[in-house]
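1st attempt posting a full record on here, be nice pls
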Amino acid sequence: MGKYRERRRKIKRNRNIAVGVLLLAALSAGGYLYSRAGSNRTQSVGETEKGTAADLRDKILSAARVGQTDLTGLTVMEAEETLNERYQWELIVSDGKDSVLLDNLIEPQLQAIIKQLDPPDQTQQYEIDYEALREPFISQAASLAERWNKSAVNSELESFNKTSGAFVYTKEQNGRVLDQEKLVEQLMEAVKSENYQAEIMAGFKETSPEMTQAQAKEQYEVVGTFTTTTTDNKNRNQNIRLAVDSLNGLILKPGEEFSFNNTTGNRTKEKGYQPAGAYRNGVLIEEPGGGVCQVSTTLYHAIIEVGFKTTERNAHSFAPSYVKKGQDAMVSFDGYAGPDLKFINTSGHTMAVRAALDGKSLKISLVGLPVLEGGVKVTIRSEKVRDLEPMEPVYEEDPSLPYGTEKVVDKGTTGGVYKSYRVYKKGDTVIKEEPLHNSTYKGKPAVINRNTTVPPAETESQTSPETQPQTTEVQENSEIGPGGGGSETTVPETDIPVVPAAE
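the predicted structure (as tokens):
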């Protein structure tokens, strides 16, 4: 604050010196011109006005006063210097750390008074209109409030300690609000007492946060959770476990977008991911990361239960068995791009992801403050819209079969289009349903073994050339995946198919 005063004093001192020099120069020039005018009697109009103004500034004020400042006996020039010094403006407001020099609000009135000072013998009394300063002070107080007000900070979920298995919460912080009315009255009191170099300490009202640390620990809860069952495939479960480890304890800030691919990173063998069944371009292959889509699908259901809307979700090309058709979320990543699962934390508070694989039970939960109205639950409902055209069967030669016969080893499946809805319930009552997404799944062709080769010699005499192939047996595939059944799972479950057709 001392720096402000010193700076203002230097400015005023330099300005007065400059004004004095200019006035002396003007007076000298005026006197020179006037003396020359006595000999030749030729002066311009401008030169006459300058001389007159200089003469007036040298006149003595017989009785003049501005507020409490007596100017009697001073010349007009001396009166101006006195007023500029007496009403030197260094009004400062501080919050204890930050100091602000307020705009000079009295300067316009002061200059207007100086112009009115009249040398003749008459009493002159001028007053500063302090009430005219009230509105500008109110405006300046509002600006200071924007600068100094601090909102109270609620306690939030900050991190998850994987070692202790406990969440860590931030410490709440009180806020403050500038008492603008009090500040305006302090400023008005200072100027009315002509204390234009006052240092005003601003007053604040303390505000409390809505949620303390203790309250946060009580109010944060599981707001969405879902569980699926994995297979006995060790490699697949290893991949699931690595993805689970990447998710568990993840903290999402308000407004932050979650990306499954960015969270887990590229699923490579260097990171410990094992080869497991996955579809690529419709072909079943062994690829590191197979099984990870079950993690993204399980998380997807937890996201829906919270009440969030995903910003990206993709269906598998072939329907998986661990959830109902139309309710999966396929992901794939090559380190740069790929189908992803994304959503934004629109709750206004931090959230955490909890994920665990216990035996074959995969459970993923979201921990935060409730987003939905109390008692409201959200689930997914899916229905088939139509079947796709059946695929042509695939025939495979099997010389072990009797010549001319066929055997169906896989009946195949029919592809279909499914429409899913977001269902809001309160208790057993459906409040509303809204469209969620469409999913298109490819069918699988039936696989038929047959023998159309040259018949064995020992059976040649028993086989007529006109004998037509006969279907002798239909064999059901017995490999039923978790959560499904029938011929939909005749091929091992997949997790990384090609990007499905646009919905």
